[in-house]
């Protein structure tokens, strides 16, 4: 039971099982994502042939694919809720991912699509449910829960850091399918950890019978006006989440192609594979997470505004400013025919600081505001919102092929900054709609 679970370094052993499982799952996902568009646009006649698609075609598929990867959290959550429980759904998702990434390592067009399909279903089963299981390791009100999620988030980014470098170098040196193959090996490791660690997860992620009449009575009550207000703010926060990822996810798409096609990547006579730049975000997450966390902590202690919506808006603005460096890069490209690497690094630095402001708080904000009745639907919608963001990111990337890089990067800079500012201006009425959900000392409502 949750009371007598074994611990290591002050956290339940189960956390480390989930940590390593998700580390390897993200290793496989981000390894694949780093190669995805680059592979699609690689010439069919080159030594290391891809599909020879145009940028526009590649970004269109990237948008659909990464959207579905996250939207499939809705069926994934449903299966966990109604049929299997979270723990078994993660297991099933992991199996689908092992198959998907392995199939992707084969060199044919049909296997490519089949692999993607399995990955979509696999992430939907694994990603949302493993995240919820982390919460399930801690009792309500356990102070260690936030730290638990923080540790888990580090695992995600260790995977996200290593994979684009290792898969990218293999893909460039030996061929794309070796890169995809390494992603598959990562996923197998994750699955082995998860299977081995089942003994430490006995008490979490099991299917809960919802037939209990007392629970049902609670759940059948109509929503109060406070709950209705909170749903309104929730919907707005979903919109912010969509907008955030719509800009941020240029990373694996347009910016990945930009690194490949328009950036001078030589250093000390060596050429860095474009996919390696996909590691920069995770590198900065790992190195800056505590700095940003400490900043907000001190900021709040001084009595400043520190609501989740405020942090999300600030995150969007900082991320938007990162696109200013991409505008500068495209000016340099127009003038000299190639742009320097540091523009990409600076852009990713700002994107990461933005992510560190916006992303962790958005998840906890949602769990605080969702009426119990809709808790799992709203969790599914959270991941789906990320998915819609990815789709819009693809569309924006596609539009850059006709509008021009400078126009699109500058457009994101201006429009997204304005959105952030408008949200900050509307903060007071928005916070009123939360009815103190974020204020621990205030009575409900
Ligand atoms: N890097 C995070 C992860 O992979 C962000 C995912 C997302 O919400 N798009 O978990």
Automatic annotation (TrEMBL):
Record-level GO cellular component terms: plasma membrane
Signal peptide segment: none
Lipid bilayer topology: Multi-pass membrane protein
An individual GO BP term: oligopeptide transport
PROSITE patterns named in the record: MFS, PTR2_1, PTR2_2
Domain of life: Bacteria
SUPFAM superfamilies assigned: MFS general substrate transporter
Keyword Signal: no
Keywords annotated in UniProt: Cell membrane, Membrane, Peptide transport, Protein transport, Transmembrane, Transmembrane helix, Transport
Claim: Transport is one of the keywords in the record: yes
Subcellular localization: Cell membrane; Membrane
InterPro entries reported for this sequence: Dipep/tripep_permease, MFS_dom, MFS_trans_sf, MFS_Transporters, POT_fam, PTR2_symporter_CS
GO molecular function list: peptide transmembrane transporter activity
NCBIfam families: yjdL_sub1_fam
PANTHER family: PROTON-DEPENDENT OLIGOPEPTIDE FAMILY TRANSPORT PROTEIN, RESISTANCE PROTEIN MDTM, PUTATIVE-RELATED-RELATED
Family: Belongs to the major facilitator superfamily. Proton-dependent oligopeptide transporter (POT/PTR) (TC 2.A.17) family.
Protein known as: Di-/tripeptide transporter
């Amino acid at each position: 039971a949750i009371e007598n679970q074994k611990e290591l370094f002050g956290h339940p052993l189960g956390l480390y099982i989930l940590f390593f499982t998700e580390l390897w799952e993200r290793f496989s996902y981000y390894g694949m994502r780093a190669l995805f568009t680059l592979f699609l646009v690689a010439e069919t006649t080159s030594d290391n042939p891809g599909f020879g698609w145009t940028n526009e075609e590649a970004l269109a598929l990237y948008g659909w694919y990464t959207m579905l990867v996250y939207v499939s959290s809705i069926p994934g959550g449903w299966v966990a809720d109604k049929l299997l429980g979270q723990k078994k759904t993660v297991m099933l998702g992991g199996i689908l991912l092992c198959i998907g990434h392995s199939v992707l390592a084969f060199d044919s067009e049909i296997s490519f699509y089949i692999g993607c399909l399995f990955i979509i279903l696999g992430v939907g089963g694994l990603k949302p449910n493993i995240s919820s299981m982390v919460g399930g390791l801690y009792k309500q009100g356990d102070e260690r829960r936030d730290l638990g999620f923080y540790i888990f988030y580090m695992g995600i980014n260790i995977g996200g850091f290593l994979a684009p470098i290792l898969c990218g170098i293999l893909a460039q040196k030996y061929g794309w399918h070796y890169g995809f193959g390494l992603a598959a090996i990562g996923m197998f490791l994750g699955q082995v950890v998860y299977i081995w660690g089942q003994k430490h997860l006995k008490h979490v992620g099991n299917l809960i019978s919802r037939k209990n009449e007392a629970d049902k009575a609670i759940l059948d009550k109509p929503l109060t006006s406070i709950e209705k207000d909170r749903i309104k703010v929730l919907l707005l926060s979903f919109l912010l989440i969509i907008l955030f990822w719509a800009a941020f996810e240029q990373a694996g798409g347009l910016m990945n192609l930009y690194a490949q096609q328009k950036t001078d990547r030589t250093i000390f006579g060596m050429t860095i594979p474009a996919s390696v730049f996909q590691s920069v975000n995770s590198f900065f997450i790992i190195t800056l997470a505590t700095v940003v966390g400490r900043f907000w902590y001190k900021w709040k202690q001084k009595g400043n505004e520190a609501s989740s919506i405020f942090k999300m808006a600030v995150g969007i603005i900082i991320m938007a400013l990162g696109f200013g460096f991409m505008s500068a890069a495209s000016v340099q490209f127009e003038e000299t025919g190639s742009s320097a690497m540091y523009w990409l690094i600076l852009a990713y630095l700002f994107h990461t600081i933005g992510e560190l402001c916006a992303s962790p708080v958005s998840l906890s904000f949602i769990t605080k505001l969702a009426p119990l009745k809709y808790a799992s639907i709203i969790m599914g919608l959270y991941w789906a919102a990320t998915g819609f963001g990815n789709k819009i990111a693809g569309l924006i990337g596609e539009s850059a092929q006709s509008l021009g890089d400078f126009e699109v990067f500058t457009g994101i800079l201006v429009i997204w900054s304005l959105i952030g500012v408008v949200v900050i201006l509307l903060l007071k009425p928005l916070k009123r709609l939360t009815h103190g959900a974020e204020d621990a000392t205030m009575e409900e409502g």
